[in-house]
Design a protein that fits this description.
The chain is α+β, with helices and mostly antiparallel strands. It folds into 4 domains: 200 residues, ATPase, nucleotide binding domain (Nucleotidyltransferase, domain 5), CATH 3.30.420; 68 residues, Actin, Chain A, domain 4; 110 residues, Substrate Binding Domain Of DNAk, Chain A, domain 1 (Sandwich), CATH 2.60.34; 87 residues, Substrate Binding Domain Of Dnak, Chain:A, Domain 2 (Up-down Bundle), CATH 1.20.1270.10. 37% of the residues lie in helices and 25% in strands. It contains 16 helices and 29 strands. A hairpin with a 5-residue loop joins strand 27 and strand 28. The longest helix has 31 residues. It starts with a strand and ends in a 6-residue tail after the last helix. Keywords: ATP-binding, Chaperone, Nucleotide-binding. One of its GO terms (molecular function) is ATP binding. This is Molecular chaperone HscA. It comes from Mucilaginibacter frigoritolerans.
Length: 625
């Protein structure tokens, strides 16, 4: 018999499954690159998307920051893409769990400032004098969805299932969980978007069903295709392929480029005039949508007519659609399958409404595609079905045992880095790679914790051990893989291995040993109650840690390469370093990030100059130490 504990008198949590019982509504959320939406199971037991106060089902994933600190999200924020683009953030999903190096080739895509700190740390976005993480910005979008759901349903919404692309890595999935927490949501599960889409079509609901399906997902900014195998109600991702910078936005851009050429516009002027560029992009989006019911688009902006017909549009987008078909071929190859082995093809994403897309996908797979369910809504509807399963309202789907509390390790600043999130199916295996923070570090303390709070002091310590014998190397060079293996009996094996040397250490613990139902209940309650404060503390600690690392790196640089710098440069750099050190004691996250940004901008030319000097010297057969 599963053990059930109660929260707030009306909410129950099943410790065997980690799921909420029937008393409380759990919503399904599709957090999209271009648009987001929320769905629930209505009284007729059918999934339904929420349209609050007639604003529409789709909530644009756009956030605007006003001059007085006011924040606008969704439909109203979208208007500011034209009137105030530098303070309007869009496509933030592209940045979740990413470092600047991941997206530096696409930095011109964003009209707002994405901070380059020349490191592997996660990106930040600067708006005015404030710095935001993609987690904070995604949290604002999720909070808007929560508010709309509560207004429409007239009931509190505290728990959700959120979908992510199948190719999202651990860092991106955890960032999505953190965004939900910041929005005041207890994220019961992160579900792959293709899995959710399958559920919306009823595929996988029958535990006796065995099928292999392809999910073709072409949204506004991203494309991915996933090959899934469904057996005994279990979804396995066999392969995934795609392009995180290919979508309906590219169709719009193709139209804009066509108009620029046809009307002999100066592209440099458009880049300089952000407002005109956005107006043109939105007009192109109108044209694209119009081709669903007309063959010619002809409208005016200012004194210029912008004209395009459907055949020209199809010619313009053909190379992009062909790119997606190539991705489908690669996905099949990776899954070691032939086209004839695919039983169903599901279309997801608003851009699949384009007639050419449907035609080419159907021709490639040699079968009609599923597009009966609104492609904008299908993922959210499937997430609502998954939420209904977690609520214990469906007996036709087997719920595997899951871990009731998150498992992770302590990182710099006393933070909890989650390796296995709460509600993960068991048995399971997960891992992450870490490195050293100081030069010559030969030992690494690994402390394992269980709980839902951001600070390890609020969680339960399970084990601690030292990985000894790491070769002495500069900070950042060692590569330490830490893997968690949680078996079906609830035994957790932690393995740490330094990849360059092969140094290895293992330990076993039982996460639930000696913990009562009441303690689990309290830990879950505390994580919800203190979510906002926890995230704020985490972000301050991360800013301090990054700032301390920056001062350490710059001071070492000055010591090592002082002969390449002028006295004035050394003096000014020292002033910037001191300014950052002062900011570190302030407790102001934005001030710390601002000081890091200023120091980084000032010192970047030094590094570039040193690199040029190193190349020049190497060409002469010498080396710089």
């Amino acid at each position: 018999m599963p053990v059930v504990i109660h929260i707030m008198a009306k909410v129950s949590i099943n410790l065997a499954t980690g799921s909420i019982q029937k008393e409380e509504l759990i919503v399904g959320i599709d957090l999209g690159t271009t648009n987001s939406l929320v769905a629930f199971i209505n009284p007729d037991k059918n999934p339904q998307v929420i349209n609050d106060t007639g604003k529409g089902v789709l909530v644009p994933s756009v956030v605007h920051f006003g001059p007085t600190g006011d924040i606008t999200v969704g439909n109203e924020a979208k208007d500011y893409l034209i009137t105030d683009p530098q303070n309007t953030v869009f496509s933030v999903k592209r940045l979740l769990g990413r470092s600047y190096k991941d997206i530096e080739n696409y930095k011109d895509f964003f009209s707002y400032k994405v901070i380059d700190d020349d490191s592997e740390s996660l990106v930040k976005i600067k708006v005015g004098d404030k710095f935001y993480t993609p987690i904070e910005l995604s949290g604002l979008i999720l909070k808007e969805l929560k508010v709309r759901a509560e207004h429409a349903l007239k009931t509190p919404v505290n728990r959700a299932v959120i979908t992510v692309p199948a190719y999202f890595n651990d860092s991106q999935r955890q960032a999505t969980r953190d965004a939900g927490k910041l929005a005041g949501l207890d994220v019961l599960r992160i579900v792959n978007e293709p899995t959710a889409a399958s559920l919306a079509y009823g595929i996988g609901l029958n535990p006796e069903e065995t099928k292999t399906i392809a999910v073709y997902d072409l949204g506004g900014g991203t494309f991915d295709v996933s090959i899934l195998q469904i057996q005994n109600g279990i979804f396995e991702v066999l392969s995934t392929n795609g392009n995180t910078f290919l979508g309906g936005d590219d169709f719009d851009s193709a139209i804009v480029d066509y108009w620029i050429e046809k009307n002999q516009l100066n592209k440099a002027d458009l880049i300089a005039d952000n407002k005109l560029a956005q107006r043109l992009r939105l007009k192109a989006e109108e044209a694209k949508k119009a081709f669903a019911h007309q063959s010619l688009f002809n409208e005016k902006i200012g004194d210029i007519w912008y004209t395009i017909d459907r055949n020209t549009f199809n010619e313009l987008i053909l190379p992009k659609v062909q790119e997606t078909i190539t991705c489908c071929q690669n996905a099949l190859k990776d899954a070691k399958l032939e086209i004839g082995q695919i039983d169903e093809v599901i279309m997801v994403g608003g851009s699949t409404r384009t007639a050419l897309v449907k035609k080419m996908v159907a021709e490639f797979f040699g079968r009609p595609v599923h597009d009966e369910v609104n492609p904008d809504e299908v993922v959210a509807l499937g997430a609502a079905i998954q939420a209904d399963v977690l609520a214990g309202n469906r007996s036709d789907i087997l719920l595997l045992d899951v871990t009731p509390l998150s498992l992770g390790i302590e990182t710099m600043g006393g933070l909890m880095d989650v390796i296995i999130p709460r509600n993960s199916k068991i048995p399971t295996k997960a891992g992450r790679q870490y490195t050293t923070s100081i030069d010559g570090q030969v030992n690494m303390k690994i402390a394992v914790y269980q709980g839902e709070r951001d600070l390890i002091k609020e969680n339960r310590k399970l084990a601690e051990f030292d990985l000894k014998g790491i070769p002495s190397m500069p900070a950042g060079f060692p590569k330490v893989d830490i893997n968690f293996l949680l078996n079906a009996d609830g035994i957790l094996k932690i393995q740490a291995i330094e990849l360059r040397s092969g140094v290895k250490q293992e330990v076993e613990v039982k996460p639930t040993y000696g913990i009562t139902d009441d303690q689990v209940e309290q830990m879950l309650m505390d994580s919800i109650t203190h979510a906002k404060d926890d995230v704020a503390q985490r972000m301050l600690i991360e800013a301090r840690t990054e700032g301390e690392q920056m001062t350490y790196t710059v001071e070492n640089f000055i010591k090592k390469y002082s002969n390449f710098l002028s006295i004035t440069e050394i003096s000014e750099t020292t002033q910037y370093v001191q300014k950052l050190k002062d900011a570190l004691t302030s407790g102001d996250k934005d001030l710390i990030h601002k000081s890091i940004d200023e120091l980084n901008e000032f010192t970047r030319p030094f590094a570039e100059r040193l690199m040029d000097e190193a190349i020049s010297t190497a060409m002469k057969g010498k080396s710089i130490e």
